[in-house]
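re: that chain from earlier
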Amino acid sequence: MFVASFLTISGNIAATLQVIDVSCCHDLALLDAVRSCEQLRCLRMPFCGRVSDLSPLAACRKLEELWLAGDVKIRSLAPLKACPELRKLDIRGCRSELREQVEDLRGGACPHLAHPSLVVLEGLVHDIQPNMPPGMQAAAASALGTRATYGAKNRSAIAAAGAIPLLVLLLEQRSSTGVQVAAAEALCNLALNHAENQAAIVESGAIPNLMQLLGPESSAGVQHLVFAATDLLRIFGLRAL
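^ sequence. v structure.
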């Protein structure tokens, strides 16, 4: 894999890297290469399904953020005891036994570590970035839509995290109807009884994209979502067209 070989060959560069994002990378040599990144502060490696051993991270003592969502083979967080500056740890979709290990870290070697629930939203917003795989985007958009139904505070928090413009971009992803539907539903839920979110959705250019989903090949379910979102945007006098 290019990432691993690059970090190994370019030792001087690797030693200065502070942020690495290798989402969905399945190269088992990746973590061994990261061992040389002494200044590393943020490592994003969600859905790297073949990674099971975090031991190389013990060398990254300045690590502050580690994103492991969906890495189901990881059984132990013990190597992270060597990372006293760790503040954010995303274990969405990982083995359930890791939750107890997180509490052990928070109560001992990593006193600055936030509760996992506090980093979930940031992880979901990252997963709807344009460069993420469609399956990941759809799952994250759906999860954001569900969280938006839990009350106005959640809807405000999701918007503050920067989700709205990213969800609008997903509406343009015509190669994946599933992504478009998930994004439309999330925007619909974010607009519910929330004037600020409604205005933000309109300002982000959502309406033209939503209306494009009403083409002749669109399913009835997609049309329903578009009409529902448009109606919600009109609650406070906003006009779809």
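The radius of gyration is 20 Å.
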